[in-house]
Write a structure and sequence with these properties.
Blueprint (H helix, E strand, L loop, with lengths): L2 H8 E2 L5 E4 L5 E3 L7 H4 L5 H10 L12 H16 L9 H6 L7 H23 L4 E10 L2 E10 L2 E9 L8 H14 L7 E6 L3 H10 L2 E4 L1 H13 L3 H14 L2 H9 L14 H14 L13
Parallel strand pairs: 4-7, 7-8
Antiparallel strand pairs: 1-2, 2-3, 4-5, 5-6
Helix pairs in contact: 1-3, 7-8, 10-12
């Protein structure tokens, strides 16, 4: 839908300098032949409202648009949740001047986000109620902190349930995992009797979980392939370790600068032992760097 069509539905009494909003009666400044930016951004949700009015047809009403305060809260929430935007920056006057959302202090935003979680949990519980589902989960470790992300897959689609630090990081047994999964299921009112499978990495802990709760396990194909590749390259690990050690020594600022100075467009890559692709990329990069290694023939550390 073109902006001109949206404006024709949403505004009336056009003049050379402004138009009147059909919903709130406000006069919005907008010079002719200068685009429609001010007009179409006057109310949030203008595209959906205009499409509804043109389809039915009808005049736009206030109920068709999102409340400005709710729209601002949603905008800040999306910025924090999807872009890892720090809460501390919400109060920054420089940030506020460059973002089109209405200023909001971080305490208010945090309270509203916590309330939003409760609303979303209720909606998700209603959607998942009585549905057969497969539980999808995986662990994640960062800065020595272990967390688990959990999804529920149904015929309706995949629903994110939780991403939370592990309760007892000192004991990550099958029993601890089951207790953690039970908490997530209880949060959304999911019955274990409706669980038809578990999708997780092919680890002994996950296998023990499936045996204890007596459901099928759908192992991760990528993880199985990774395990197979690691077994296949095991005899070559001494050589791979030597290449990895060389890459680590080449990653210093002075050596990388020397490579750039001599026309090398590649940077050394370290070995990623948990993924076969990391090993492949490192060896491939070694081939790319091999013709530049003569530059370090006098370097005692290489």
């Amino acid at each position: 839908m073109k902006n001109a069509d949206i404006v024709s539905v949403q505004f009336k009494n056009p003049t050379a300098t402004n138009r009147t909003c059909c919903v709130c009666g406000g006069v919005v400044a907008q010079l002719q032949h200068a685009g429609y930016k001010n007009l179409i951004s006057h109310h949030h949700g203008y595209k959906e409202a205009a499409a509804m009015c043109m389809k039915n047809p009808c005049a736009p009403t206030a109920s068709m648009f999102a409340h400005k305060d709710a729209a601002n809260t949603f905008g800040w929430t999306k910025l924090v949740a999807l872009k890892n935007f720090p809460f501390a920056h919400v109060d920054d006057p420089v940030i506020r001047d460059t973002i089109r959302f209405k200023p909001m202090d971080k305490r208010t935003l945090l309270k509203r986000m916590m309330s939003l979680v409760g609303v979303v949990d209720i909606k998700a519980a209603e959607e998942l109620g009585g549905e057969k589902f497969a539980l999808v989960f995986d662990g994640f470790t960062d800065a020595a902190e272990h967390a688990i992300v959990i999804f529920a897959a149904t015929k309706k689609g995949i629903r994110f349930l939780t991403f939370s630090p592990f309760q007892d990081e000192a004991s990550q047994t099958a029993s601890e995992h089951i207790a953690f999964l039970d908490l997530a299921l209880d949060q959304y009112g999911l019955d274990v009797a409706n669980m038809i499978a578990i999708v997780a990495d092919n680890m002994e802990t996950n296998k023990a979980i499936t045996r204890r709760i007596k459901v099928a396990m759908i192992g991760c194909a990528a993880h199985r392939f990774n395990l197979a590749v690691r077994q296949w390259i095991e005899p070559h690990m001494p050589l791979i370790k030597k290449v990895s050690s060389l890459m680590q020594r080449l990653k210093t600022e002075k050596r990388v600068a020397k490579l750039k100075l001599n026309g090398c467009k590649y940077k050394p890559l370290a070995l990623h032992e948990l993924r076969w692709s990391g090993c492949y990329r490192m060896l491939k990069r070694f081939e790319d760097l091999q013709r530049f290694l003569h530059l370090f023939v006098d370097d005692c550390d290489i």
